[in-house]
Specification:
Layout: E1 6-11, E2 17-22, E3 27-31, H1 32-37, H2 42-45, E4 63-69, E5 73-78, E6 86-88, H3 89-97, H4 99-112
């Protein structure tokens, strides 16, 4: 646990990224696709590492809304209907710090399973 505390949270106008700055001086721009595939929800993370789901086809996903949860987190509502992930400040800080490694691992996992970041024949919800 980092005890990260945000000083600014900004959902970009195009809803494709969230920028968050922290008291420690760090600042991260986290793409909506990255936030969606790394969602801390049980739906994605499962109840154990073996249950973790690989989420494909989210290249075009957007964040419809960022809703504060108390003073410790934000719930992100995605335009694909996913809304169960509660992103604590620590989780967002970790996602920012580990973005390069996590994204590389994600792309490798997609490739190893012959999956794509693009949604095959799906219709985006508005």
């Amino acid at each position: 646990m980092t005890d990260a505390w945000p000083t600014e949270i900004k959902l970009h106008k195009d809803r494709r990224a969230l920028t968050i700055a922290f008291e420690d001086g760090s600042s991260f721009t986290l793409p909506a696709e990255y936030l969606r595939v790394e969602s801390p929800s049980a739906e994605v993370q499962g109840h154990s590492p073996a249950d973790r789901q690989l989420v494909a086809g989210k290249r075009e996903v957007r964040v419809d809304e960022a809703i504060p949860v108390g003073n410790y987190a934000v719930r992100l509502m995605f335009d694909d209907g996913h809304s169960t992930g509660i992103y604590t400040w620590d989780i967002l800080h970790t996602l920012g710090r580990e973005q390069e490694e996590r994204w590389t691992r994600y792309l490798q996992e997609l490739a190893s399973r012959n999956l794509s970041r693009d949604a095959a024949g799906s219709v985006r919800r508005h």
